[in-house]
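for the writeup, i need someone to sanity check this before i put it in the appendix. the sequnce is what the collaborator sent (i think, or maybe the updated version? ugh). structure was predicted straight from it, no edits. if anything looks off just tell me and ill rerun, i have time this weekend
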Amino acid sequence: MIEIPISKPMFDDAEKAAVTEVIDSGILAQGPKVLEFEKQFTEYIGVNHAVATSSGTTAIHLALLANGITPGDEVITTPFTFIATATPILFCGAKPVFVDIDPKTFNLDPLKIEAAITEKTKAIMPVHLYGQPAAMDHIMEIAEARELVVIEDACQAHGAAYRSKTVGSFGDCGCFSFYPTKNMTTSEGGMVTTNDSELAERLTLLRNHGQSKRYDYNMIGYNFRMTDISAAIGIVQLSKVEKHTEKRIENAKKLTEGLEGIVEVPYIMSDVRHVFHQYTIKQNSRDRLKEALAEAGIGSGIYYPKPLHQFPVFHEYVDEGFSAPVSEEISHEVLSLPVHPGVTEEGIEKIINEIKKFISQ
């Protein structure tokens, strides 16, 4: 039995009351709670606009569409991520161009981006993996010099910051997920952030059937709306996210203090705020360690067991002979440990002790 799960949504009576209020109001679909949530999220990220969506996947899809990504275009991104980073590129008829990752941060390696740019390249999509910001200064320099769109996949990085600037505020758009395992949740949902008013208008039209007002269709759009029930949960979660984030950071610090020199602990860049969506170690005997932890009642996760370019669904989009050696190697070694706010001091100590026990065998 798993006593310490790898993730755990942090709910209490406040979320329950917020949902009940919406149900009692009779306004269940996109309504005033969505508007309120969007306003609060703009303030949290430090941008001019936020457009709520039905998921992190639809947030990325809308961001690509709103930025004019069309069939034949190429979008540079990382292969070491969840599939929902890359599939929206395919939804647009464009081609994901995978660039390998930095061996320390596991984020897109900016030193390898230039070589992947072609005349078809229209955008760069860095992922702030595990809650650590990508090297946004280098990425933005490349994008500005080459006149490329930047769409940040910040789905794991609510409140993370690079050189005191919050992720989701660097590029043309930032995309967030509110899936139950994320640092804050709406049960399902997403958000696109931007400082561009025209982009915000296109995003708003695209997520709601292209309607500027009811039954006035300005373009072909989608039903990617967030419900007021989800937004009500999001408003409560947003009020707690900083407290929960500080607990994640505290738990991560304790794990590092106990595990440094035992396994390879997470590398944290200087001048960043890593919000520890995942606390990910490297270990050669990763699979056996995962089994040992499970036997001790400790959950863990492998994010990710195989880079995207190795899956058959992407083979037709990957140039023959392509490899991403860092991603391929790391996928056999990474293991994420419980770091969420529900992990107690006793739980942290148990995780440390069980790993030490395994390593000493």
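The longest helix spans residues 228-259. The chain is about 35% helix and 15% strand.
thx in advance!!
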